[in-house]
């Protein structure tokens, strides 16, 4: 075994997220994304094909999502290359989970450390429709007012059968933790492992079913849709898992301590 165990910096492709400006939203106040423009987003579905959470492909074998999306590996199917979530378009790739790794600090009552990695049974094939999400470096921050983009198939279970669920996206500014934690807002419930995003006037937000999906700032997935209070409420921005606090954990989980740098 090679004693020269070194820490590799895994350089993932920088990706720009483009989207068309159409209107209306499921993601609240957002737009329909251009087909297959957000290639690293995945849909987590029940084995019956019901979408329930989003995620991001960070390695051919691994997806990052929210810990509260854990419904048990045997009940889950991961779909990459999707656009209209319950219509077969020929670009989809399906994989079952091999293993779910919930963050050890995840607390379902406070939502702290709401992050989970899913190892797939078979790797996704990277192509025109499927790519890897760039992640932020450990400990890097976003600043108040920085504009980010959240995307998802967020659907309230109302629809049931026939509706077509097209990927939607909306841009949102980062809200400082101080403001998000104020007594008029989340009143101290925002931990250092969370970031908030939303307009002071509300109206644009992630919502139910967008959970686990990416909040992308400067081309990197800085947030995972985690929780909120209603959707699009002016007083309550959306709350996201701060991915940069978990970059080391992500790399250690995926690559272990025996990184073979030459491979990457
Ligand atoms: N927990 C919700 C879900 O399971 C996501 C909530 C996000 N809410 C918000 N207002 N940003 O999909």
TrEMBL record:
Signal peptide: 1-19
GO molecular function, one term: serine-type endopeptidase activity
Catalytic reaction annotation: Preferential cleavage: Arg-|-Xaa, Lys-|-Xaa
Alphabetized PROSITE patterns for the sequence: TRYPSIN_DOM (PS50240), TRYPSIN_HIS (PS00134), TRYPSIN_SER (PS00135)
Entry annotated with the keyword Metal-binding: no
Similarity section: Belongs to the peptidase S1 family.
Record-given protein name: trypsin
Organism annotation: Lates japonicus
């Amino acid at each position: 075994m090679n004693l020269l165990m070194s820490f590799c910096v895994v350089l993932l492709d920088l990706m720009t997220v483009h989207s068309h400006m159409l209107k209306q939203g499921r993601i609240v106040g957002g737009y329909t994304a251009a087909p297959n423009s957000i290639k690293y987003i995945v849909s987590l579905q029940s084995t019956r094909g019901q979408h329930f959470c989003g995620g991001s492909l960070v390695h051919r074998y691994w997806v990052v999502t929210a810990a509260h999306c854990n419904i048990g590996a045997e009940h889950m199917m991961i779909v990459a290359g999707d656009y209209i979530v319950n219509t077969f378009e020929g670009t989809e790739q399906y994989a079952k989970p091999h293993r779910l790794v919930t963050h050890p600090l995840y607390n379902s009552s406070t939502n702290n450390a709401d992050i989970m990695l899913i190892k797939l049974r078979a790797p996704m094939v990277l192509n025109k429709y499927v790519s890897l999400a760039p992640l932020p470096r450990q400990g890097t921050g976003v600043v108040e007012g920085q504009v980010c983009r959240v995307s998802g198939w967020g659907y309230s279970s109302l629809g049931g059968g026939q509706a077509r669920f097209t990927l939607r996206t909306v841009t949102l500014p980062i809200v400082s933790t101080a403001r998000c934690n104020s007594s008029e807002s989340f009143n101290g419930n925002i931990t250092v492992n969370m970031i908030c995003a939303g307009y002071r006037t509300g109206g644009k937000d992630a919502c139910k079913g967008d959970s686990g999906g990416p909040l992308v700032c400067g081309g990197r997935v800085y947030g995972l849709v985690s929780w909120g209070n209603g959707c699009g409420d002016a007083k309550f921005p959306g709350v996201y898992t701060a991915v940069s606090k978990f970059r080391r954990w992500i790399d250690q989980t995926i690559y272990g301590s025996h990184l073979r740098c030459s491979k990457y």
